[in-house]
Amino acid sequence: MIAKKLKAVVISGDVIASSRIKPLQRKKLQTKLDRFAQTYFKLYPDLQFQQYRGDSLQVTLSKNRVYALSVALQLQSFLLMEEFKIRLALGIGEISFQSKDVITSDGSAFQLSGPLLDDIKKRNALIGVTAVNNDFAAEWKVHSESLNFLLQRLSAAQAEALYHLLQNKKQEEIAKTLKITQPSVHQRLQAAGAQVFTSIIQRFESTVTLL
């Protein structure tokens, strides 16, 4: 199906060291990916999520593309809770050809996301964001470095608290969910650099609509 220059964000992902994951852990990983996909299908009806080659995936958001970075970071923190790591590359552009399968669709968003994933793999990074617009791409190269610095240092406990925060939960709600005290939640979020994550997400949401 030909898309009429559908603006979108494409997220390409690859689970790190997936070949070394033991069978029981692989089953847990797949369960978490399935649960994540089903949850976000309900939140964002325009979201498409498809796995391929085992532990690689592609996600597209069009109408709700402003939330793409938040979704990506929620996926990463969701997996880090069980100490799984995934690389994610966000390409911001258009979908010029949309098929039933995400991986056979095409457009500038796909053409940016795929090569960026290869690039961050070479650099042993966890996330990258780019777009056709050179000024935007230059700015987000810097923001991506900041996100990588924080993501590489997240503990499982910090990732768990961050995941709930990125779902717009208050610290008191998070404390109740995790069965810990509110000061403990605050401590985990502070150590995670949560304020930096939320500031960068807000920047993404305010600028991606201009592309």
Walk me through this protein's architecture.
The longest helix is centred in the first third of the chain and has 21 residues, at 23-43. This protein has a 5-stranded mixed sheet with strand order 2-3-1-4-5, sandwiched between helices. The protein has 211 residues and is α+β, with helices and mostly antiparallel strands. The mean pLDDT is 93. The protein has a single domain (2-210), classed as Reverse transcriptase/Diguanylate cyclase domain (Alpha-Beta Plaits, 2-Layer Sandwich), CATH 3.30.70. Helix 2 (68-80) runs antiparallel to helix 5 and helix 4 packs antiparallel against helix 8. The chain is built from 8 helices and 5 strands, in the order βαββαβαβααααα.
Lay out the secondary structure:
Elements (H helix, E strand, L loop, with lengths): L1 E14 L7 H21 L4 E5 L3 E6 L6 H13 L5 E12 L10 H15 L4 E5 L2 H18 L4 H11 L4 H8 L3 H11 L1 H14 L4
Parallel strand pairs: 4-5
Antiparallel strand pairs: 1-3, 1-4, 2-3
Helix pairs in contact: 1-2, 2-5, 4-8, 5-7, 6-7
Quick description:
It is built from 8 helices and 5 strands, in the order βαββαβαβααααα. With 211 residues, it is α+β, with helices and mostly antiparallel strands. The protein has a single domain (2-210), classed as Reverse transcriptase/Diguanylate cyclase domain (Alpha-Beta Plaits, 2-Layer Sandwich), CATH 3.30.70.
Structural class: alpha+beta
The gyration radius over C-alpha positions equals 17 Å
Distance between the termini: 23 Å
Question: Reading side by side through the largest sheet, how are the strands ordered?
Answer: 2-3-1-4-5
**What do the pLDDT scores average to?**
93
| Shape summary | globular
What is the class in the CATH system? Alpha Beta
Largest sheet: 5 strands, mixed
The DSSP helix count reads: 8
Number of beta strands: 5
CATH level-four homologous superfamily name: Reverse transcriptase/Diguanylate cyclase domain
Strand content: 15-25%
- What share of the residues lie within helices? 40-55%
CATH fold-level assignment: Alpha-Beta Plaits
In CATH, the architecture is 2-Layer Sandwich
Uncertain regions spanning at least 5 consecutive residues: none
Series of secondary-structure elements, N-terminal to C-terminal: EHEEHEHEHHHHH
What is the domain tally?
1
